[in-house]
Amino acid sequence: MSATARRLCRVAAIVLAVALTGLPATLSANAAEDNGPRIVGGTPADIADYPWMLALVSPQGQVFCGAELIAPDVVSTAAHCVQGVNPNNIYVVGGRSDITKLTAGDSVTRVERITINPAYSTPAAGGDEAMLTLRRTLPYRTVPLAHAATDAGLYAAGTVGTVLGWGRTTEGGYNSAQLLKVDVPIRSNAECTTAYPAFNAAQSFCAGVPEGGKDSCQADSGGPFLVNGRLIGLVSYGRGCARPGYPGVYARLGT
Ligand code: 4AZ
C-alpha cells in the first residue's frame, strides 16, 4: 500500500470511529485567548446560568453556530446555519462552558430532522429561523421564550439584551473556547435601515453601540438575544463584526 493510501485509510478509520461513537474526534476552538476580546467585546459566561445554550459542531469538531433548547428534543437556531446541511453532519453539544473539553455522555446528540422556516430566503430578508429535531432528548432546562402578548415592548430601541456564543472574538479572528456574553442595546429601525438598506423591520431588529467594539460574530449565528432572561432574537447577520455604524442583526422571534 502506498503512503498516500495508508494516510487515506487512517483518515477513514478516524471518520468511522467518529461515526460509531457519535463524537467529533476533537473539538477545536483554535487559539483561545484569556485576556483578548470576547464574542467581540464581551466576558466569559457560565453554562450553569444558561443551561439551554448549545453549540452546533461539525464532524471536524468546529463550532459553526449557536442554538437553544426549546423542548427536550427540539432546538432553535438560524436558518442560514443549517440550510443545505446534512443532518448527519451536525453534533449538538450542551452542558459545557469550555466547548473544547468534550467527553462522552449526555451532552452530545445528533439531529433527526432540520425544519427551515418556509418563509426564509436570505438573512437580510428576515425570518432566519430553523428548528432541529434531535435523535434523543437533552437533560437541560429549556429557554424561556418571548410572548407576543406581553413582550412587544422588549423590542423598543434602547432595550439592552445579552448575546451568547463561542464564535469569533474579532472580525476574521478565531472562535472562543469559552462561552462568552456581551450586552448590547437595540437600535431604532431607522438606524438598522441606514446600515442595511435591505433590513426587514417586521422580522428583524438590530443591536449594538454606535462606536462599535461589542457584537456577535461568525459562529455566533443562531445564538440567543436575551432580554429579562427570555429569548427574543437569534444572531443572524451583520457587516463584519463590531464595526462602528454596523450593528448586528437578529431574527425577531416575537412581535
Ligand atoms: C456571521 O457571519 C455573522 N456582527 C453573524 C453575526 C454578525 C456578523 C456575521 C453580527 O455568521
TrEMBL record:
Q: Does the keyword Chloroplast apply?
A: no
Residues in the signal sequence:
1-31
Keyword Lyase included in the entry's annotation: no
Q: Which GO terms describe its molecular function?
A: serine-type endopeptidase activity
- List the residue ranges forming a coiled coil, or say none: none
Could you tell me the keywords of this UniProt record?
A: Disulfide bond, Hydrolase, Protease, Serine protease, Signal
Question: Peptidase S1 domain location, by residue?
Answer: 39-255
Checking Pfam families in the record gives: Trypsin (PF00089)
The record's listing under InterPro entries reads: Peptidase_S1, Peptidase_S1_PA, Peptidase_S1_PA_chymotrypsin, Peptidase_S1A, Trypsin_dom
- Read off the SMART domains from this record: Tryp_SPc (SM00020)
Q: Name one GO biological process term.
A: proteolysis
Record's family?
Belongs to the peptidase S1 family.
The name this protein carries in UniProt is Serine protease
Q: What is the organism of origin for this protein? A: Solihabitans fulvus
